Amino acid sequence: MPKTVTFDELGPVGLICMHNPPVNAISHSVRLGLLDAIERAQENSSIKVLLIMSGGELFSAGADISEFDHPLGEPSFQQVQARIESCHLPVVAAIHGLALGGGLELAMACHYRLAHKNARLGMPEITLGIIPGAGGTQRLPRLIGARRALEMILSGTPVSASDAGSKGLVDEVAEGDLRDAALNFCNRLAYSELGPRPTCNRTVIDSLDDAGIAAALHPYARALKGRTTQDLVIEAVKASTLPFSQGLAIEATLAQKSLASGESLALRHVFFSERESGKLVGVSSANANQAPPAAIRRVAIIGAGTMGSGIAMAFADAGLEVLLNDNDSAALPRSREYVRSMYASSVKRGRLTQDIADERIRRIRNALELADMTDVDLVIEAVFEDINLKKEVLSKLDSILPSPRLLATNTSTLSVTELARATAHPERVLGLHFFVPAHASKLLEIVRTDDTPPESLSTAFRVAKLLKKVAVVARDSFGFIGNRMMLDGYFREAEVLLLEGATPIQVDTALENFGFAMGPQRVSDLGGNDVGTKARLQLFKRESRPDPYFVVADRLTEMGRLGQKTGRGFYLYPNGSREIVPDPEVISLIEELASERGILRREISEQEIVERCILSLINVGAMVLEEGVAARAGDIDVVWTSGYGFPRHVGGPMFYADTLGLSHVLQRIRHYHERFGHYWRPAGLIERLADAASNFEQWEGSSASRS
Ligand code: CAA
Question: Cα 350 from chain centroid?
Answer without folding.
Answer: 22
